[in-house]
Design brief:
Layout: H1 2-18, H2 30-37, H3 43-54, E1 65-68, E2 71-72, E3 82-83, E4 86-90, E5 95-101, H4 108-122, E6 137-143, E7 157-163, E8 171-181, H5 195-205, H6 219-228, H7 235-292, H8 297-304, H9 308-312
Parallel strand pairs: 5-6, 6-8
Antiparallel strand pairs: 1-4, 2-3, 4-5, 7-8
Length: 315
């Protein structure tokens, strides 16, 4: 019976998740995110996004980028390979990794460092004369969950970088990380004034919009919403989009089912343990009463089924 209920939940979740409520795709979907921001014909969207989030890190604004193969091969056949959402390089040689991550991971910050390290290692030149002057590598991570930082601050964007422990103001921008936690962004559209906030609002809410509001106009958003519009999807693109949404719905249903099972089992075990503890305590109290009446230790142990040493300890 429980299995039937779980399957029913999965189907309901899929239907709700996959039915397009608005005219635009959910941009937290990896396929939709790549379609919009890794588009060769509309690279200005990616350029603007990188400039928005790394404005303070870069010596000069990015003018153009080359979108690279997102596949990074490990150093040996035994090394781990990686496939990123977006990997690109600007005209100054700086490298960028851009990820949209929906499912929470325990060590996501470490994962980001690992991917950046792979990008650094893959940029090494062959030969003994290479002096380790690798290009700067920046990692931009849009997250539909909140990773565990060491503190409880409510900042939507957190930046990590290398700095001097004794002089924190001295930083080394050889590599830098930006973690954009979408669930922490709760501004209404009326509260969004900067391009930064309007972009975050769009990432969170584009799929809920039945029409595009006037606040989200201009070249940047004209191009973005055109690519995100369902009517511009080919049959193959829509199939890929829905398959990603289906995988997400399946995972969510599985986690919810596991959580409910865990809670139910925990309650059952708790009741069972409570009953067992109550019975045990009752037997001990009975043994104490029998000892007060002057019964022999061996006799009390035989009647209560308690070990003789435990009965003797109750004196």
């Amino acid at each position: 019976m429980r299995l039937v209920v779980a399957m029913s939940k999965t189907k309901t979740t899929r239907k709700n998740k996959l039915a397009p409520k608005g005219r635009y795709a959910d941009l937290t979907n990896n396929f939709a995110f790549q379609k919009v921001f890794a588009n060769e014909k509309e690279k200005s969207l990616l350029v603007t996004t990188l400039n928005i989030f790394f404005e303070k890190k870069l010596a000069y604004p990015i003018k153009d980028v080359v979108i690279k193969n997102p596949y990074i091969q490990g150093e040996t056949k035994y090394s781990r390979n990686s496939v990123l959402d977006i990997r690109c390089e600007d005209t100054g040689g700086n490298k960028f990794i851009v990820e949209m991550q929906v499912n929470s991971q325990k060590h996501f910050i470490k994962r980001s460092i690992f991917y950046s390290s792979m990008s650094i290692a893959s940029s090494g030149k062959k030969g003994e004369d290479w002096d380790f002057d690798f290009p700067n590598v920046y990692s931009l991570n849009f997250l539909d969950f909140e990773p565990k930082f060491a503190d409880k601050r409510n900042d939507v964007v957190r930046y990590l970088s290398l700095h001097d422990d004794d002089y924190p103001e001295i930083r080394y921008d050889y590599t830098g990380f930006a973690f954009v936690m979408l669930p922490k962004f709760n501004k209404s559209l009326e509260e969004c004034v900067s391009l930064h906030d309007k972009l975050l609002f769009t990432l969170r809410n584009a799929h809920k919009l039945k029409s595009r509001p006037k606040q989200l106009r201009g070249k940047f958003f004209d191009r973005l919403f055109k690519l995100a519009k369902f009517s511009t999807f080919t049959k193959m693109e829509f199939s890929q989009y829905t398959s990603r949404m289906m995988a997400r719905a399946d995972r969510k249903a599985q986690l919810e089912y596991a959580r409910e099972e865990g809670i139910e089992q925990g309650i059952t075990q708790g009741i069972s343990q409570g009953i067992t503890q109550g019975i045990s305590q009752g037997i001990i109290e009975t043994a104490k009463s029998m000892l007060k009446e002057g019964l022999d230790f061996a006799l009390v142990a035989r009647i209560t089924k308690l070990p003789k040493k435990q009965v003797m300890a109750l004196r």
